[in-house]
Amino acid sequence: MLAPAEAIEERHGLAAGELPDEVLDGDRPVVLRGAVAHWPMVGASRGPARDAAAYLNGFRRADAPPVVATVGPPSIQGRFFYNDDLSGFNFRQEQVPLHVVLGTLLKYETDPAPPAIYVGSTSIDTWLPGFRSDNALDFGPRDPLASIWIGNRTRIAPHQDVPDNLACVVAGRRRFTLFPPEQLRNLYVGPLDFTPAGQPISLVDLDAPDLERFPRFAEAMAHARVVELQAGDAIFIPSLWWHQIEALDAFNVLVNYWWRRTPAWMDTPMNALMLALATVRDLPPAQRAAWQDAFNHYVFEPGDATAGHIPDTARRSLGPFDERRAKELREWLRNRLDR
């Protein structure tokens, strides 16, 4: 892999569970060394993998539904990705009880060429009630969604998430490779609406980048940040930062928290992007340029000239949004789209 240019800022010596607001409200990634080292889960992971698995099983609901396990053959070497022509994927997904997944990971722990096994983005409160109270963090006014990720040596290709993200390594080691949002053009992102796990991904293999096929990726790596985390470490990944996550050991567990700095009623901007692709991108050049100006006027550069000439009580979608106004606009859009 090409050498990255920058290190990620690190904080050390935090008090147990301390999460600085200036980090969680920032727009740069920060590593928080030892932020969750006090967790009982991390303590269990310092022994044999079976101890960490037993700790997780201690919270498992007997009546919990199966989890979604992503499984690939040894030949993919842990890289969950598309097939050769991007018409499908190189893995399958199965509905499996969580304790069966944990047992299977232990079974293959010493296998030099195991199948790739990955349980991603699984709600802790649904499948492991009590885990959060036993392994707590204080997020202040934020109310994050907590998820757990379990697997063996796997690679999740560079992708971005809309929410801010605090990722906590609680068993095994993980390597994070981050790219700033503005590196989009240099990451060679694949299809937006046909993805391995919901988010568009870079098509570049970071372990063996093909610079003849993806020459701009060299520029992306010049702006990359790479860090390896041990159990007990955490990393703050701001909204829309691209990140690849590699699990480096035969038994790995990560807990992450997602939250947005916008009201819950705000839709994801990806919906606007997808609709713009269908309605704006293929217009004649002059019309497309006019719409670009309109988007700047109404969305990206609003000011007094945007709606200052309209009485406050009559501005509707040009005025401030709240939950009621957003609901009305969604209904208006549904009616327009369903015609």
Automatic annotation (TrEMBL):
InterPro entries: Cupin_8, JmjC_dom. Residues 117-274 form the JmjC domain. It holds the Pfam family Cupin_8. SMART domains: JmjC (SM00558). It comes from the Bacteria. This is Cupin-like domain-containing protein. The lineage of its organism: Bacteria, Pseudomonadati, Pseudomonadota, Gammaproteobacteria, Lysobacterales.
